[in-house]
Amino acid sequence: MASNQSVLSIENLQAGYGGVRVLHGVSMTVKERSVTVLLGTNGNGKSTLLKCLAGLVTPDAGSAKLSDDGAGVELAGMHPYEIVEAGVSLVPDGRRLFPLLTVEENLLMGAFKKSARKRHKENLKSMGELFPVLRERKGQLAGTLSGGEQQMLAIARALMSNPKLLLIDEPSLGLAPIVITKLMSTIKELRDKYGLTILMTEQNLPQAAKIADWGYIMVHGKIVFAGDAQQIHDNELVRRYYLVG
Amino acid sequence: MALDLLLESIATGLLIGGFYAALSVGLTISFGLIDIANVAHPAFIILGAYFALALSQTFGIDPIIAGLLLVAPFYVIGNALYLFYSNTFERRGESSLAGLVLFFGLLILLEVGMATQFGVGLKALYSAYGSVAVSFGPLLLPLRFVYSFVAGVAAVIALELFLSRTFRGRAIRAVAQDAQAVSLMGAKPETIRLIAMGVSIATAGLAGGLVLAVGPISPYQDRLLIGRVFAVVVLGGSGSVVGALLGGIVLGISENIATIYLGAGWSLAVSAVILLLVLALRPSGILRR
Q1: Whether residue A152 is found in the same domain as residue A177
Q2: Structural domains of chain B sorted by starting position, each given as residue range(s) with its CATH number in brackets
Q3: Is A167 found in the same domain as A155?
Q4: Which of B160, B184, B188, B192 to mutate to test the interface with A (most CBs of A within 10 A)?
């Protein structure tokens, strides 16, 4: 179960594209060895928040601190490759695999940073154990995999860098319900077996709520609800937001 | 038509294909993998040939060895070229058309520079094997083409291993597909392109040594190569190093056969015909990247 040490503290983060403000002062924390789910329907700013954390979007204001054994590293304003070096890995929206590289070559791309290169053999082996289908298809071009396999490859590729914090943007998008169930149990396994800290965005409340320790709901670029697993499940606002609104 | 002559021209064409591959692999990396249409690539090859000539004459070394010695300095020249290009054109998002103009200007500068520096006349190195032929069964093959074939094939194998087996090489192939995703892997796309352009121009150094080994050189000789190297790159599949070898062999054999049946004047047109046919019928080339 989740500890109380926080791995990521976001405070009053503001960001947008050109003149359009998307995030209006977002504050949240992600606790060590937890699965934290950021819920919300399309177009509310969930992806933008993850892009800020991964360095793909530069925030206009606010801070996102990665606590690195006491000393916090400010992620806001860092380049994507520096953020990977600091121990944060993003599984991006749409997976963004390299379709013309093989499954194994995609995984090895994930191990590009120096500290991960040294461990690429053992990491490749553990990814094969975690996702046997990727081991079976290691010589196949990534572009020829099914949607579910591609999502697994995208997660495995991100794990090849040995991240402290794994960000996953909408893992269930476009996948069949049975594939989503399997994927969620894999994400749960990452926390339970490997002690990973995960922040993921989701539109799919019932599936995400099953594995979430903590949940946040974002509406129009603001956090409107924060709570633990039980509260997400019971909360009137959550029900109203998802069932009615 | 004598069968022997046909066989010999096919065999020589195959050997020339390895030579063409060495001239084109660098371009398939810059043009095919990092989207830099370096039309000055053949001019860098001729520059390499003049440097190889100077090295060979000064130290009495083989032109192919001289080409190998040029690999490291030409890598640095490629780095510098990329830095200039990325800090001016690429950063402003004018990478395609304005970039082409930059490289076209560079081509002319290199030609004029070489013409004023080394003279417009032909220069040649008379190496020990320049006019020697080896017999291979019933065939007589020029030794200089055998050596340049071996060097070209070795360069292709080395580059293929680099691109498929090393972290940097794989990143060069990945950056062609999704540069932003490459940054999410912890690699800086600009650095990856810097390396790729270095490798691309480094091959021009080696290719210069091969050009010198094969025949006399002149400052405007790049004009005879430019159509060929683009034909080889497009035919092989832009971005594919092994494709450049296959494309080179197809072009080498086609040119030789055209010379026999149509006359030597036609051989230069072969690359243009191949280029147009491939673009029209199979734009992705023999091997997709």
Answers
A1: no
A2: 3-281 (1.10.3470)
A3: no
A4: B184
pLDDT digits (tens, 9 = 90+) for A197-231: 999 999 888 888 889 999 999 999 999 989 998 88
* pLDDT tens for each residue of B35-92: 999 999 999 999 999 999 999 999 999 999 999 999 999 999 999 999 999 988 777 7
Chain B residues whose C-beta sits inside 8 Å of any chain A C-beta:
164, 167, 170-171, 173-174, 177-178, 180-188, 288-289
Range of the domain at A63: 6-87+163-244
Of A79, A100, A112, nearest to B185 by CB-CB distance is A112
If asked whether residues A53 and A69 sit together in one domain, one would say: yes
Q: What is the CATH number of the domain that holds A168?
A: 3.40.50.300
d(CA B167, CA A153): 18
Q: Which two tokens stand for residue B164?
A: 């498929």
* 3-state class (DSSP) for residue A218: strand
Number of domains in chain A: 2
Query: Does any domain span residue A16?
Result: yes
Q: How far apart are the C-alpha atoms of A46 and A34, rounded to whole Å? A: 18
Q: Residue A1 falls within a domain, yes or no?
A: no
CA dihedral of B210, B216, B219, B223, whole degrees rounded to 10:
-70
Q: What share of chain B is helix, strand, coil (3-state, %, to 5)?
A: 75, 5, 20
A69 and A190 fall within a common domain: yes
Q: How far apart are CA B33 and CA B162, in angstroms?
A: 14
Q: Which residues of chain A does B243 touch, with a Cβ-Cβ cutoff of 8 Å?
A: none
Tokens 């000393």 locate to A71
In angstroms, rounded to a whole number, what is the distance separating the alpha carbons of residues B188 and B26? 22
Tell me if A92 is assigned to some domain: no
Q: In what order do the strands lie in the sheet with A71-74?
A: A20-31, A6-17, A61-68, A71-74
